[in-house]
């Protein structure tokens, strides 16, 4: 043993620590779930590393997690025989904010305690949550494959500093010892610990063990202490959740599992659990969240996490980008393949045919799930749309094969209501089409108000024809890829001719001809005046209140798009 060295936490760590302790006090028991989750990740990582190097786990091959306690010392220990950490890794992972998500979380902080507490509820708090219940934490670890004398002890009271020490004889893996605060001694009760493991960690695929309870005799009050021949009970189900039959799994099981893989505090909105057998076999368990992650984590398409690739029960890597298209990046879950080789790399995944099949199968599952929700529970679907609609719209342009499925899932604001909520589906619209109406009409604009009040709507409004109001940034781009739905053309009211004639009462047409004649002189003057500004000046019947409006040729870029490009300097 060397003398302990003192290190300072990275400044941000201190900030996260304080926030976690204050914001999550009312959910303090989640610390156990977080530490077990880390232990499980560490076992996953060792199992993966041992594929290429079996010696790494040979001496103690049964991967497991052990929870024990010492009632006199007021300590609770969470131990795993997983991958462990080297000295550098301890500094990197525990002493700094290693996760980019956490760093971006910090950028989001407003300084307003209440708002920040809500924010922290939206991201996984991880290791530091242990400081909610502990006033000192001792972490001892040795990385698999490193010599027995390269163990590391990390210790901190969570107040700005930690100490590091090299140890001579440490078992492979990691032990986290929590020195519980005086008011948190409930976590020394075996029944309480067992209850929490069942509630939050039953789905963990490795055995979570606790010291066997030796009868209910009060004289055996020290049953949790480390003794020489300690006997253990497995407390959790200890098999990968997605491999268990659906009939055996309760909603709570799926919910707890979702929280483990997604770091989301909210329950998922829905999930689909399927086994596919055929030219290849795999299991998929896919979750749709109920809330979009906070803005900063969401805006970019770069970092996508939460869809895990397993191969025959072995965790391989986070592979959202390889297993789902970008427009489904809100989905998390597990794909467990029976057929892929264990030594796949990201590059191989990129070109593998089986992976391409899995990707298209998984996309279809998600879209089917969304369609089912939209049929079964309108409110629930509306909740989904409000959170993720704008992301789903990207699919119309990106996923040609599923265009029709996607179009069915779209929701719009429309002239059918005085509300800007996006609630109208294309099927709703078609159901309300007027006799003789052939197209689905829409208008794009910068805002709902601008769309709603556009003079270009007047003629259709006067004839009771509904118009979809497309006002999101992405709409103009998306609608360019959607020319048709259910055999009906989608037409912009700002482009070319809208066939008012077919919609109008037959009697109108005489009157119109007269009006056109009467305006001939005026038209001529306007054409000369505006010669270098417009292509043509016509009498139009689309207006009922405004004297004039600008129209685009059928193939012109929409006005809204032209404005955007101009702003961008084109
Ligand atoms: P997360 O698990 O989301 O990455 P945590 O704060 O829970 O965030 O953990 C931070 C990092 O510390 C982990 O990513 C991992 O590298 C390391 N770590 C934590 N606990 C363990 C453990 N039991 N074994 C090995 N590494 C661990
Ligand atoms: Mg963690």
TrEMBL record:
Location, primary (coarse class): cytoplasm
InterPro entries in UniProt: HATPase_C_sf, HATPase_dom, Heat_shock_protein_90_CS, HSP90_C, Hsp90_fam, Hsp90_N, Ribosomal_Su5_D2-typ_SF
Molecular function in Gene Ontology: ATP binding; ATP hydrolysis activity; ATP-dependent protein folding chaperone; unfolded protein binding
PROSITE patterns: HSP90
HAMAP family, alphabetized: HSP90 (MF_00505)
Subunit structure: Homodimer.
Protein name: Chaperone protein HtpG
Gene: htpG
């Amino acid at each position: 043993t060397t003398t302990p060295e003192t290190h300072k936490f990275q400044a941000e760590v201190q900030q996260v620590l304080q926030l976690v302790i204050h914001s999550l006090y009312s959910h303090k028991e989640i610390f156990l779930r977080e530490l077990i989750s880390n232990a499980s990740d560490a076992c996953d990582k060792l199992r993966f590393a041992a594929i290429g190097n079996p010696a790494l786990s040979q001496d103690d091959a049964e991967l497991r997690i052990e929870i024990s306690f010492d009632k006199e010392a007021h300590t609770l220990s969470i131990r795993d025989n997983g991958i462990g950490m080297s000295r550098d890794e301890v500094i990197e992972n525990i002493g700094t904010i290693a996760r980019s998500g956490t760093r971006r979380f910090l950028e989001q902080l407003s300084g307003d305690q209440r708002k920040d507490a809500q924010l922290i509820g939206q991201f996984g708090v991880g290791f530091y949550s242990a400081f909610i219940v502990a006033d000192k934490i001792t972490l001892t670890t040795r990385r698999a494959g490193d010599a027995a004398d390269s163990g590391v002890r990390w210790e901190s009271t969570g107040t700005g500093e930690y100490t590091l020490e090299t140890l001579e004889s440490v078992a492979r893996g990691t032990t986290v010892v929590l020195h519980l605060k005086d008011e948190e001694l409930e976590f020394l009760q075996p029944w309480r610990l067992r209850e929490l493991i069942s509630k939050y960690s039953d789905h963990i695929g490795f055995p979570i063990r606790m010291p066997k309870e030796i009868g209910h005799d009060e004289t055996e009050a020290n049953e949790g202490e480390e003794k020489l021949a300690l006997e253990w009970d497995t407390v959790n189900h200890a098999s990968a959740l997605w491999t268990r039959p659906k009939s055996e799994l309760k909603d709570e099981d799926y919910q707890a599992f979702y929280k483990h893989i997604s770091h989301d505090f909210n329950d998922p909105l829905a999930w689909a659990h399927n086994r596919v057998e055929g030219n290849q076999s795999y299991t998929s368990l896919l979750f749709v969240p109920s809330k979009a992650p906070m803005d900063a984590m969401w805006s970019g398409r770069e970092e996508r996490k939460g869809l895990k690739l397993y191969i025959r029960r072995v965790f391989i890597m986070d592979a959202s980008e390889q297993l789902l298209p970008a427009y489904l990046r809100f989905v998390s879950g597990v794909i467990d393949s029976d057929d892929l080789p264990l030594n796949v790399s990201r590059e191989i995944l990129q070109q593998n045919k089986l992976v391409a099949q899995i990707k298209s199968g998984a996309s279809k599952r998600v879209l089917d799930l969304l369609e089912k929700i939209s049929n079964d529970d309108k409110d629930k679907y509306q909740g989904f749309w409000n959170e993720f609609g704008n992301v789903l719209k990207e699919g119309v342009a990106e996923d040609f094969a599923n265009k029709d499925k996607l179009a069915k899932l779209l929701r719009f604001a429309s002239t059918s209501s005085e509300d800007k909520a996006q609630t109208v589906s294309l099927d709703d619209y078609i159901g309300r089409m007027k006799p003789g109406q052939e197209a689905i009409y829409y208008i794009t604009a910068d805002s709902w108000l601008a769309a709603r009040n556009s003079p270009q709507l007047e003629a259709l409004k006067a004839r009771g024809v509904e118009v979809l109001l497309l006002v999101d940034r992405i709409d103009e781009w998306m609608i360019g890829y959607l020319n048709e739905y259910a055999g009906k053309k989608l037409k912009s009211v700002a482009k070319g001719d809208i066939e008012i004639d077919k919609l109008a009462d037959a009697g109108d047409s005489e009157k119109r001809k007269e009006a056109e004649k009467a305006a001939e002189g005026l038209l001529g003057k306007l054409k000369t005046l505006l010669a270098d500004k417009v292509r043509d000046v016509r009498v139009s019947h689309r207006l009922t209140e405004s004297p004039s409006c600008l129209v685009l040729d059928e193939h012109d870029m929409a006005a809204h798009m032209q404005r955007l490009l101009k702003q961008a300097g084109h």
